[in-house]
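User: Hey, my collaborator sent me this sequence without any context and asked if I could get a structure. I don't really work with proteins. Can you help?
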Amino acid sequence: MNRKLRINIFVLATAACLSVFSLPLWAQTSAGYLYHLSDFNGTVQSLWARVSVDPRHGEVYTLNRSDAAIQIFSDTAMQVFGYGEGLSLAAALDIASGDHGDIYLLTRSPVPTVRHLNYRGEQIDRLLIDDLGCEGSFQPDYIDYRAGRLFLADAEKCAFWPSTNNKRS
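Assistant: No problem. I've predicted the 3D structure and written it out in structure-token form, which is a compact way to encode the shape of the chain:
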């Protein structure tokens, strides 16, 4: 056999093996749609809301930036709580849910800050984000909370940061 034929056979055999062995992985993944997020007046409309899911409590937290409101929905997508008045949410960028129903709110004005709120929106703590050694300044756009740690991402710089060097104020 010539070399080109052997390479083609090898590529086909590799592709066949990969497709056969990857089938169980694809079979375990699924997505579904259950409900519209609603309140007692019907479907809750929002544009560009940020969403965080608390799998432990089965709740969905939304940061509706256009209405400057945080809304909390039950596992059946019904709004159970909401607030925002007096929290200055106009500068809020993203939201993450913590372990015990608490909320982490990322703001960028006047400096990048993570506000730690309880379920009712009362501030527990505030974390100021240091310059993390990136060229220029680190301006996070996204926040996530996993396994007791905060993670921040700057989309413009394609950089992320685990929360190990926070300053509390």
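In plain terms: The first strand starts at residue 38 and ends at 39. You can pass these tokens on to your collaborator as they are.
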